[in-house]
Write a structure and sequence with these properties.
Order of helices and strands: EEEHEEHEEHHEHEHEEEH
Radius of gyration: 18 Å
Number of helices: 7
Number of strands: 12
CATH class of one domain: Alpha Beta
CATH architecture of one domain: 3-Layer(aba) Sandwich
Strand order of the largest sheet: 6-9-10-3-11-12
CATH superfamily of one domain: P-loop containing nucleotide triphosphate hydrolases
Largest sheet: 6 strands, mixed
Length: about 260
Amino acid sequence: MADPILKISGLEVAVDGKPILKGVDLEVPQGEVHALMGPNGSGKSTLAYALAGHPRYEITGGQVLFGGQDLAEMEADERAQAGFFLAMQYPVEVPGVSVLNFLRTSLNAVRGEEISPRDFMKLFRQKSELLEFDSSFTDRYLNEGFSGGEKKRHEILQMAMLEPKFAVLDETDSGLDVDALKVVSRGVNSMRGPGLGVLIITHYTRILRYIQPDVVHVMFEGRIARTGGPELADYLEENGYVEFGAAEAAAAPQA
């Protein structure tokens, strides 16, 4: 097993003074895809935003090591430069900033050097084709007027272009029809390899049919309640989260 790119020990996080995470222990080796499942309100998205450095999410205890560095000592932009990436559950709209300018500025910031316009456009076209991202969106403002599927494709397009060492996908499957889910999953799978660790945060098992996880964790009431192999997702799809104290399904309702 590879050394963990992300090592979380006894992590406690509060939001506006309210404790949400109450001692999370979790390791993700580089080169592996882990799924973090759990009922609504269990703390999954809190973990994602705390890792990304959102100021509302205060680490009050424990430790997070990212590539051997103490994540709590790093600013959000420093985490990105170190290779951390978050695909948000609800991507924000940024009026006045075009998709193309956003991507190029992000790429330059993460690399710490200017990419030539020619090399940037070559990379952009290559990754856009993979994600079936309409080139007509390049001059539109970031996420403004985008459908849910378009926003999620753009999140994964960012990931493909930035080539992070570790990516957290926070409920990337929410709001996607099956065709968009397949495209997004294909993009993530194309990036799998020894240089990338992935944590997929999801309520339902649907995305795990297309992105096969190496390990599945269940979060409940701010802690990791169980860890297992891919078969754990199948178990949850059949039985839901009842045994963890929540009468919720882990399989999305049929349309």
